[in-house]
Amino acid sequence: MRVKFLGTAAAEGWPGLFCQCDACRKARELGGKNIRTRSSCIIDDLYMIDFSADTYYHVLRDHLDLSRVKHLFITHSHEDHFYPQDLQMRKKPFAYFTSNDPLHVYGNDHVKERFDQAGGEEKSDGTLRFHKVNPFETFIAGDAEVTPLLADHAPGEQCYIYAIKLNGKTLLYGHDTGYFPEQTWEYIKKYSFDGVILDCTSGPQESMRYHMGFPTVLKVKQRLLDEKIARENTIFIVNHFSHNGGLMHDEMVEAFSPYGFVVTYDGMEIEI
Ligand SMILES: [Zn+2]
Ligand SMILES: [Zn+2]
Ligand SMILES: [Zn+2]
């Protein structure tokens, strides 16, 4: 499966919308891979994980054809991952299609609530279908077999990370989350992941709860290997960075790649 990272920042973007800190100033000066928008990715041009407020910009930047996307998996309801107002742009007279297939949106209760507030299925003229999905209950979406797993992210919301099987490959999409809850560790024992994408919001700094930093990412990698949930040839990727981590893209590559990690940047594509 081919994964394309559309946005690789935490909620504020990097440089942050209003921020004048050193890390944001440096990112503005250097540009290129240091400019990070809000988080989402697209798989094989047909499946999307999360739908950020920067999606319109991603479409322009990467010449995406979103009309091809039929399945959208939402991790949680935070605005940087889910901007449901733009989903309503899929109906007439905002969009015209050759096919009548709806876009299937999958998420938890909180995601459903925000989806409905923005108009939901009702106002979408049949162009959107929402599916409430539950932790550890596998569902089929097109050719993909998808399982929501519990994250440790926002108190009061059951946030998901996802295990996705597609075309013979298995991917763990692991953010936003802190160190995984034990229920998730228990459940994923049956997998042997080909690709693992991990939350590295805090960059080189320590963070165990709600988001991770690199020291925790390393612990997760080691446990995945020890429990044979990942292999030596599994591709490990760190993603979802905040300016508070401080390191520029090249500095993160220098710091994390010796430990066998690929550091994402906006627009990066990787074959899992
Ligand atoms: Zn986030
Ligand atoms: Zn900043
Ligand atoms: Zn979040």
UniProtKB/TrEMBL annotation:
Transmembrane segments: none annotated. It comes from the Bacteria. Residues 37-240 form the Metallo-beta-lactamase domain. SUPFAM superfamilies: Metallo-hydrolase/oxidoreductase. Coiled coil: none annotated. InterPro entries: Metallo-B-lactamas, RibonucZ/Hydroxyglut_hydro. PANTHER family: HYDROLASE C777.06C-RELATED, HYDROLASE C777.06C-RELATED-RELATED. This is Phosphoribosyl 1,2-cyclic phosphate phosphodiesterase.
